[in-house]
């Protein structure tokens, strides 16, 4: 029978926010899109309402909206005499451009289709720094084999390592022409997805004109075309055949379409390629963008793009003053994308050691330094994104540099509302993390050597762990099978991790990553420079031995108790047999035995057995029945504990390396203070604390002390003698 509108809207609300409590649902609310965002969202609703108008009114309205939006965008981004295609997927514009070029270069493609392509195979050239999967997606949508896609490497000798190698591209095109292929289209970057570098668009345009190729440009740096000052490399994009603009992320507008601007003279081919449509409803895609551009105005659009450029420049200036931070930017004066990474030369860590005398461990660390730096920069990017979420930094993988931290405000600042103070906070967090990274990197080798020298510990090399290292306590098995040994190893290392986390320290101990980590290990996180590595390793080894000894003690006690029970059963059985012999056979008969016991009772002392857990032996219970109390036995041995814990000052946490000077000063001052107190206690009562003793006074004090000691000795001696001896001594003294 259908539902009313209130019920349907309630259902939509429940699906959006869930049927949870209001406190929980408040955190799931939509982000604050602002008034300009509401204008963009309103455009979708208006487009649906406008679509129900009559055909003539709808045609006039859609033509006005489409022409206005296209004109504004072409003027704003300096693209003269261009047409526009509005699409939801940012790759759809390039796909339509490829179809347009195929229709243009193959005249009989409309009639013969793929047969024309078979006679002369088309080739599309894409930079190796382009978006991942872009070439494969184009081939799948166009129905072309992957052999039609040619990836052009970037520079290796001269220029930026993220720019397309123009000389190599020229050789590739010549080779394809010699093999009878048709160079069709070149996709260049004005801001690569990773590092934000711009290809040499001027030279690429000349090359495309030489071979009659189509040049398509995309990238985040195209947004700077709206500014007053533009670099020459980006300005060359205005001469290309087509470009794709993603205004939604640049201006912080939700649900607005991407735009592909292009120049072409034949409208019929554009219609065949799908770049234009005869349906008025298709033209309404530009309505949200039409409303948003009018709301922001030219000054508002330029101000947002300019603000993003200022944020990247502010961060770049601060990064230049930081040690161990390496930046990878195209232009230090104006770079919309800032890419940086933590880097420290291994040669600076030990300048006294020679390369010829380097140990095997150090050589292995140098060989694996790329993996270690990737891991550390991954951790750094995650920490910065968590501490300063408004900055919008993320982690990116580059082909040559490895793992880096990227700041691209043109893609994030308008949505997140990034301000200058967020950049300052990001720099402050980075300054706090750099000492932690350097300290951990320097102490990794020392930790590895200490663990390898310590008996009972096994060092696990895990290059993907951002921290001091990974250690495992080796369980000394005594002929146990693998399954039981594995369980015992897991039990000991789990208990070891629990004990380490109970200590008062700044270190983080864990079981490692959820996926891909080693089993039965203790993972140690980032550390500071005041870490005492030897104390840490000693504590881990001592705690592991303590857990192992307790485990073995429990196992031995279980075995001893089992053997003691068996021995007690045998002794009790033997005692029962002896009792039967003492009582006789008649006493075992039910009726006769009762009568005989009544006339002549048999007195037998109970003979039980008790098991002493401390001594591990069986003892008789006769003493218990005589004294009516259970003996305590010997004192059990103390539980083995670690004696390697160092004495720490009040408030000092574990594994902290204290300075020797401060320790010596505190010990000396405390000892001298105690000596002063002892001297004050030993002064005579009549001498004030501030009065000095002369020689005569010192003699008098000594004579008093000797006389007092002699009197005390005589009194003590007389108290200990019997009365007769005392009288005899008195008479002798009288004589």
Mind sketching the topology for me?
Elements lengths: L4 H13 L4 H5 L7 H17 L4 H22 L6 E5 L4 H14 L3 H4 L1 H6 L2 E6 L6 H9 L6 E4 L13 H13 L3 E8 L11 H10 L3 E5 L13 H4 L6 E4 L1 H5 L6 E5 L4 H7 L6 H4 L3 H33 L5 E3 L10 E5 L17 H8 L1 H19 L6 E5 L3 E6 L1 H8 L3 H34 L3 E4 L8 E5 L8 H21 L6 E2 L11 E3 L8 H51 L6 H10 L9 E4 L4 E4 L1 H6 L32 H22 L13 H26 L2 H12 L1
Parallel strand pairs: 2-3, 2-4, 4-5, 5-6
Antiparallel strand pairs: 1-7, 6-7, 8-9, 9-11, 10-11, 12-13, 13-15, 14-15, 16-17
Can you offer a commentary on this structure?
- The chain has 4 domains: 258 residues, Type I PLP-dependent aspartate aminotransferase-like (Major domain) (Aspartate Aminotransferase, domain 2, 3-Layer(aba) Sandwich); 114 residues, Alpha-Beta Complex (Aspartate Aminotransferase, domain 1); 112 residues, Aspartate Aminotransferase, domain 1, CATH 3.90.1150.10; 63 residues, no CATH class.
- The protein is built from 26 helices and 17 strands.
- It has a 7-stranded mixed β-sheet with strand order 1-7-6-5-4-2-3, with helices on both faces. Strands 8-9-11-10 form a 4-stranded antiparallel β-sheet. A 4-stranded antiparallel β-sheet has the order 12-13-15-14.
- Strand 10 and strand 11 form a beta hairpin.
- Helix 4 packs parallel to helix 15, helix 15 packs across helix 19 and helix 20 crosses helix 21.
- InterPro entries: GrpII_AminoAcid_Decarb, PDXDC1-like_2nd, PDXDC1-like_3rd, PyrdxlP-dep_de-COase, PyrdxlP-dep_Trfase, PyrdxlP-dep_Trfase_major.
Computed CA radius of gyration, to the nearest angstrom: 44 Å
CATH class of the largest domain reads Alpha Beta
What is the name of the CATH superfamily of the largest domain?
A: Type I PLP-dependent aspartate aminotransferase-like (Major domain)
> What is the percent of helical residues?
40-55%
Class based on secondary structure composition and strand pairing: alpha+beta
Q: How does the major sheet shape up?
A: 7 strands, mixed
Strand order of the largest sheet: 1-7-6-5-4-2-3
